[in-house]
Amino acid sequence: MTQATTEKDVYLASFETFEKVRSGDDPSWLQAVRREAIAAFGSLGFPTVRQEAWRFTNVAPVAKIPFRVSPPPSALDAPRLNGARKATLGHPALRDLEGPRLVFIDGHFSHDLSRLDALPEGIEAGSLARAIEAQDPALEEHLSRHVAYAEHPFAALNTAFLSDGAYIRIPAGRVFETPLQVVYLPASSPESGTGEALVSYPRTLILAGRSSEATIVETYLGVEDQVYLTNAVTEVVLEENAVLHHTKIEAESARAFHIASGATYQAKASQYDSANFTLGGALVRNDFGVLLDGEGCDGILNGLYVTRGSQLVDNHTRIEHAKPHCTSHELYKGILDDTSNAVFNGRIFVEKDAQKTDAKQSNKNLLLSKSATVNTNPELEIFADDVRCTHGATIGNLDDEQLFYLRARGIDVDTARDLLTYGFASEVIGLVRNGAVRGVLDKLFFPELPQGERFH
Q1: If 262 and its partner were Cys, which of 78, 99, 221, 234 is the partner (CB 3.0–4.6 Å)?
Q2: d(CA 184, CA 253)
Q3: What is the mean pLDDT of residues 77-84?
Q4: Residue 189 confidence (pLDDT)
């Protein structure tokens, strides 16, 4: 038996145990989806660098660790839960953002840590497991129907082990300005002394009704110096004229692995405004797709990643224009230091009927070290003839003329570097619509921005 097969079989065996525990408790359609997903993973296996989509991202460090599926919070020992609380609940991403909050420990809903009293009447937000138990008809229509788990092995694993997560439903016509935060915390803690490596499968389903508007912040925090795997899937559905402002913050342990898949479906005249911020993780991979499937849609994808040490952050995005008169705007920026690596692959796909498409894509990278590396590949695939599409990428270090300008006005070199680096990052932070969320991002990113080595 090959090593790759052995690594895969760990998860196949775990699924057999998982399915026995869950059998009879869930609707037949969900059980069928889970079996399809594990079959897809069994066929696909873990990706390798021989595959084009993964050639710069080696997941062997993830595959070789036999991660155990995390138990629900009720089955966890007190040291782990206390460690998670102590390490994360004082985090500025939680402390400085008021309003309703859903908290999950290793992907399982924690009512005690959540804050639901601020939810406005009519908006449904809570545990996906409870919605499954209640047999909400919207789940069969949308849950696992948008993410392409048959093509992505990690999304297939998440779907196979799907049991809990966040379920948010915004009724038609409701406008909800206060940010709703979804927080995923790991229970693993150095204080527990077990040394176990756990995998959690957070699942988020967001349904935005016709002509609704909301702001959602999806946050992943970690216990420092702990090794674990977060394998997340987020599905978003926007009905006609819906508007969703969606921010993702990933600030996990420097030794953790974070692999996420996202899929957004947009109906006619809807607007999806997303921003993806990455700080932590030894290896981070985001696969994110948006389908503009109605006339007059607007899709916005922005992102900022800051890497140091030997971190690897890989962002793969796909924006598909399926209908005419739609626009999309994408800006991803990276700041890299030390020997860290980043990958950006952004594809804009315009179908033949998507006339009058207006699509812009840009990836800009700032290298603060001679040893940092970025591989960027913006792509356009166009089958319509009446479109306006642009894309581009830049890689460079701090501008000497700007440094000279600041130093000539009495600013020391380290402060000048910090100011220019923050200015580079602040463009993406400034695109976040909600002021409270921008304030949190400022507090998270400014202390983390490295000065970088001197090039002269």
Answers
A1: 234
A2: 13
A3: 64
A4: 46
Over its C-alpha atoms, the chain yields an Rg (Å, rounded) of 22
- Report the chain's terminal Cα–Cα distance, integer Å: 53
Tell me if 258 sits within 8 A of 411, measured CB to CB.
Answer: no
Tokens in use for 280?
């932590």
Nearest CA to 272 out of 226, 230, 224, 330 is that of 330
Average confidence (pLDDT) over 294-298: 98
Compute the distance between CA of residue 194 and CA of residue 241 in angstroms, rounded to an integer: 50
Q: pTM to 2 decimals?
A: 0.93
453 vs 247, residue with greater confidence? 247
pLDDT at 453: 42
- Which of residues 18 and 223 earns the better pLDDT score? 18
Paired tokens of 346: 């952004």
The per-residue b/e assignment along 78-114, b for 16 or more CB within 10 angstroms, e otherwise, is eebbebbbebbeebebbeebebbbbbbbbbbbbeebb
Spatial separation of the C-alpha atoms in residues 227 and 24, rounded to whole Å: 33
Encode 153-188: b = buried (16+ Cβ within 10 Å), e = exposed. bbbbbbbbbbbbbbbbbbbeebebebbbbbbbbbbb
317: closest CA among 380, 256, 258?
380
Q: In what order do the strands lie in the sheet with 243-251?
A: 108-109, 101-105, 175-185, 213-221, 243-251, 271-278, 298-307, 327-336, 357-367, 387-396
| Integer Cα distance of 148 and 144 in angstroms | 8
Q: Hey, CA dihedral for 32, 319, 342, 451, is it positive or negative?
A: negative
In this prediction, residues 64-85 reach a mean pLDDT of 72
Taken in order 241, 242, 245, 250, the sign of the CA dihedral is: negative
The pLDDT score that the predictor gives to residue 6 is: 66
Helix (H), strand (E), coil (C) string for 271-334 = EEEEEEEECCCCEEEEEEEEEECCCCCEEEEEEEEEECCCCEEEEEEEEEECCCCCEEEEEEEE
Q: What is the pLDDT of residue 312?
A: 98
Question: What proportion of the chain, given as a percentage, has pLDDT over 90?
Answer: 71
Which is more confidently placed, 394 or 410?
394
Cα distance between residue 70 and residue 314, in whole Å? 25
Q: Each residue of 221-231: b (16+ CB within 10 Å) or e?
A: bbbeebbbbbb
Half-sphere exposure (Cβ direction) of 257: Cα atoms closer than 13 Å? 21
- Which residue has better confidence, 414 or 268? 268
